[in-house]
Amino acid sequence: WPELEVVLLVARLVVLKEINLLDSNTKAPIPLDRAYDHLTSSSKQRQVIITQRQSAGGDLIKKAVALGQELFAQSGPSGEEALFAFLKEQLTSWNNDLVSYEPLANTSKYPGGDEIRDCLASLRQFVEESDSLRFLKRFVEKKAELLDLADDIQDLQDFYTNQKQSWEQLRAAVDKLSQNRLQLEVHKKGGPALARMEEILATPRPYNLLSEVASLIHTAESANDELVAAVRDPAVTQIQARINSINDELDKVSADADLRSKATAELNRLLVTASQATSIAHIAQAQQTAEAAFDRALTMIEQTPLPELPVGVKPPQPKVKERQVIVTKSLWTSDFIETTDDMETFLSNLRTKLKAALEADERVQLK
User: Is the dihedral of CA 129, 92, 73, 85 positive or negative?
Assistant: First the structure.
């Protein structure tokens, strides 16, 4: 036969998988996509060894079909090539799912990173195999590994398909609640709920625990709302009272719009913070800062000169008394008042300060 006719017949037998081509130097199989180069190059033809290809026996086919049914709940074909194609397609589908989960798992914010990497490593030996006989032999030999793999993949598929939203809600809730951790930890219900939520987040395989998430979030957030309200309500009331007091002072001096805006701006910002903040610390800080803001507003009003009057116009001008600040703590050096004599001494000191201020026509601000 002409040489090229022989090459063509050999190529057909390779495609039909009746024979195998081996490299005589390495004794390794020559892949189908490289066979053309070896068969048509006269220098490489001498390196080609042709061997008769073995086919899968009936027992191997039977075992592979049974394992495929166990893994995929589907009965694969009974022919070698068709069964090979079916099983490889199923395993490749697993592989593709894992590849799609991997970016999220690699952020360390989602579970399953180690399992995904291990599963992909195990699947590689199957999805990269092109020889049906080697594939089926390995498929049956790795039965135990594949069954374990199936369990891991089922957990991962269920998580990334059905449970991911619960996981994200859990993470978001813990992040939000952590700002009030100190208060929540001592709450009768909120403390244990937050601790359990963090325990689930730290579990390497949390899949069977996520059914608890909705109830835990509800318990912890209810406790948090209760704690925040207990701090927010008095803070808002106190800051609003200071704003009202500053407005009264502004009325006394017939303040213009610019002074009113400047004098109340900081307190108004603090009121918004106290009304909207979800952090107990931020609310408490706003309440504490409001005291200093109140003093700054009073000083601003006191130091603002009265508007000039037209010549000849002398309307009565309201008088704002000088302010005397008395820090009551400074009137008593001990930490406690324990006796009647202590009380009388403290009140006497306070009375002296108050009398001096009133006699000087000053108004008193107690702190």
Answer: negative
